[in-house]
């Protein structure tokens, strides 16, 4: 007679349980609390949870209790990080943390003139949005900043050229203008074109992190992201896994990509954050293939020199045979993803730039 041993598979956590484990891992098991990377990552996840109106209990927020209790001291000693501190504080309170420090901290920031120390309009816009959440923002100053940001975002040609910094600034401008989907951002046709150009570039580069932000920016403003882009984002999210342990390069793992691809899914109403989150030290491992077409397409156009044309219909037959099969597929999908592709290519080709330079 033999003994039969039955192994019961571990019960999978629900999405809500996974989010709780993710928050606990970020708050207590990944970096030293208060480290600037800790501030950035925890501000990001709490902001996402607030924007998606996630239901949180007091127990879910317990890993942040000690940090919340000492926020005043931290802000007063490290005022250079005031946007992180305000963001974390306001999101914790809006998610259900027992406390009402936010307004006093916002008032202290306003009275201290910390917004005036910002060099960037984008950072000023973020600061004014935070202060406005507790009613201590100067609306005239905030509107002036928004006006300048709109003018920057309306120059679509900026976003038809590889410039990740500008592209991420564009998505965040839209986040702030829409207050993360809470109000009508009143986007002009020019800003929408800019978002489509940024999305095409992100897709060509297979930069799913940026592509997810573009999709979210479109969705939060009442626009429908390309199904081709959203499928790429969904595929990427499924291939980024929370893993137990310490990464070789702790500041360069795939946490941000995991967060924004999951956020893009959640905003669309799709499932996200279902990968099982281990206890203890946490990092994020990406198995997403890196097989974009942007570099080879750019090299092809550069090598064509004076034969380069801004007309995509004229250039298509010359460009595609030059690329390998994978790059061809990515380019064809990018072309099919948006009706703005031909307009994007007019700027991307840079066919007339030398004439402008010579004329000057």
From TrEMBL:
<dbReference type="InterPro" id="IPR054197">
    <property type="entry name" value="DUF6902"/>
</dbReference>
<protein>
    <submittedName>
        <fullName>Uncharacterized protein</fullName>
    </submittedName>
</protein>
<dbReference type="Pfam" id="PF21843">
    <property type="entry name" value="DUF6902"/>
</dbReference>
